[in-house]
Design a protein that fits this description.
It is built from 16 helices and 18 strands. With about 525 residues, the protein is α+β, with helices and mostly antiparallel strands. The protein has four domains: about 100 residues; about 160 residues; about 120 residues, Tetratricopeptide repeat domain (Serine Threonine Protein Phosphatase 5, Tetratricopeptide repeat); about 90 residues, PDZ domain (Pdz3 Domain), CATH 2.30.42.10. Strands 12, 13, 14, 15, 16, 17 and 18 form a seven-stranded antiparallel sheet that branches. Strands 2, 3, 6 and 9 form a four-stranded antiparallel sheet that branches. Helix 5 runs antiparallel to helix 6. The longest helix is centred in the N-terminal third of the chain and has 31 residues. It is flat, with a radius of gyration of 39 Å. The N and C termini lie far apart (about 85 Å).
């Protein structure tokens, strides 16, 4: 038996759910938000191209080629009104939540109607219907609300609809500003010097071109001119750039210095490099040419010149190549000390290393490799830091530099070579897997290495795999094992013999030498080595 009064109430609830669904649909069909005036380039008389000077320097100038509209009085009906609409479109997830929410409301209403209007229902069925209504109604409403909220979190879609029946001319808009120029790439820019064409320069995709004048000015004039005029031509656009006597002198000086530098590079004449640098003190490339010339016989002045260039240009793309040249020159001299500034950064790096601040350590060591690029220890330390940070490619480059610049007998040389082979294999640059040259101890690779100028040997850590027991305990590559539980060790056999006497699970204190510091590292013996 049905109770029609209750039925009417629940029909109202159903209508409310339908309205919520309609509101969600309205989200996807929102009204236009505004109208805009757009420049219709197809109706403008775009036949003019202009050249704009955007920069200059002692070597030349930078220009940009732009396409612009004709004069305002020659332009008619160029603005196209556009109806811009912004709509929030539901995604697949939002539609699914909306449909589930509506379904939940329908199920809740149906359950309530059946429970209230049908008599003689079994008690279990009655409880099931009440429970269904209790959970379906808030779940359905919540899903619908969540679908609407997350829809508005999405980026709205923007659509534009032209209104061809309404056009507006330039004058009707009351605009006095010129149309925004559009960069183009129309072809070469012809460069003339005092009426004589000297070169053609291609423009890039943004319409810009760099015109280098110094060599041409130097070839044309034997002496500094009083002044000259550069004429640039691109299609029907012309730009004249007059140079005063002072500007002409600067351009001529740069051209003369570059010419001298080219001759010095070809002939190996050191005096021409000096003359070029005196003529133009800002010509830093002279340092590289000077270093290349004197490096054959005098490595120390070449190292100084390379270092000065790195200090002037710390972000040069040739950084690693220059450092490689410096390391090769340093092998031909006595070991050079750190500069005072580099020594300060080196000490800061060691302190930061103890604290585990690897990002800061990397920055300090990079400064050391630029201020004192011959200090080979900095390359090895920096490579280890980069490997800890996961920058394997940078670590491989620094390991290779360290190996190339290390002298015979350097304590970490074998470890650096092993790391180089391993990283080449991991990065896919070598098909051969690295061979294990040491013995595994606590999950790390160790080996005996002779001390310089001595018959004694020490047990050195060659490699500590990340995630291994040794890495968790705190061992690092290059550590030297000097004792276990207070008893000194000098050979690998001593270490193995002492560990065999400890039962599995015993805690031992391993004394290691790390640089100038002695550390105690506790580690558990698991298996007999």
């Amino acid at each position: 038996m049905f109770h029609f009064r209750k039925l009417a109430g629940w029909l109202c609830l159903t209508a409310t759910g339908a309205l919520i669904g309609c509101s969600v649909t309205r989200v996807e069909n929102g009204p236009p938000v505004r109208q805009e005036l757009r420049l219709d380039m197809t109706r403008t008389r775009v036949g003019s191209v202009r050249l704009v000077r955007v920069g200059s320097g002692p070597e030349g100038l930078d220009v940009r080629c732009e396409r612009v509209a004709a004069a305002p009085e020659q332009v008619a009906d160029v603005f196209q009104p556009v109806e811009v609409t912004k709509r929030w479109k539901m995604g697949g997830l939002q539609r699914a939540m909306r449909d589930l929410g509506i379904l939940g409301l329908v199920v809740a209403v149906a359950s309530k109607l059946i429970a209230d209007n049908v008599t003689d229902l079994p008690e279990d069925t009655q409880r099931t219907l009440d429970r269904t209504y209790k959970y379906s109604l808030p779940a359905g409403a919540g899903l619908i609300g969540l679908s609407i909220a997350t829809t508005f979190l999405r980026r709205p879609e923007r659509t534009e609809k032209p209104l061809p029946e309404k056009r507006s001319s330039w004058r009707d808009t009351g605009r006095d500003v010129p149309i925004e120029p559009t960069p183009i790439s129309p072809g070469p820019v012809r460069v003339a010097l005092d009426g004589v064409e000297i070169q053609q320069v291609e423009t890039d995709l943004t319409g810009q071109a760099r015109v280098v004048l110094a060599p041409a000015v130097f070839r044309r004039y034997k002496e500094a001119p009083e002044s000259f005029r550069v004429t640039l031509t691109c299609q029907d656009a012309t730009l004249e750039v007059p140079y005063s006597a002072a500007e002409a002198r600067a351009v001529w000086t740069r051209g003369a210095a570059l010419a001298l530098l080219s001759e010095a590079r070809a002939t190996g004449d050191e005096s021409k490099v000096t003359a070029a640098r005196e003529m133009d003190p800002t010509l830093d490339e002279a340092l590289l040419v000077y270093a290349d010339i004197v490096g054959k016989d005098r490595p120390v002045p070449a190292i100084t010149a390379y270092t000065d260039y790195l200090n002037l240009h710390p972000t040069t793309p040739e950084l690693r190549n220059i450092q490689r040249r410096v390391l090769a020159l340093a092998l031909r001299t006595e070991p050079l000390p750190l500069t005072p500034e580099a020594e300060n950064h080196w000490r800061v790096a060691q302190v930061r290393m103890q604290a585990g601040a690897y990002e800061e350590v990397a920055g300090e060591l990079e400064l050391v490799t630029r201020m004192s690029p011959w200090w080979v220890d900095a390359y090895y330390q920096l490579a280890r830091v980069y490997e800890q940070l996961g920058r394997k490619q940078d670590a491989l480059t620094l390991y290779e530099l360290a190996v190339a610049g290390a002298r015979q007998g350097t304590e970490w040389l074998e470890a650096a070579k092993a790391a180089t082979i391993r990283l080449r294999y991991e990065l896919g640059r070598s098909p051969t897997a690295p061979a294990t040259s040491g013995t595994l101890l606590f999950g790390m690779e160790v080996a005996e290495r002779p001390l310089p100028n001595s018959d004694k040997t020490v047990v050195t850590v060659l490699r500590v795999p990340s995630g291994s027991k040794a890495a968790r305990a705190g061992f690092r590559e290059g550590d030297v094992l000097v004792g276990i539980d207070g008893q000194p060790v000098g050979k690998l056999a001593d270490v193995q013999a002492m560990l065999r006497k400890r039962p599995p699970g015993a805690l031992v204190q391993v004394e290691v030498l790390r640089g100038e510091n002695r550390l105690l590292i506790p580690v558990t013996v698991e298996t007999t080595p």
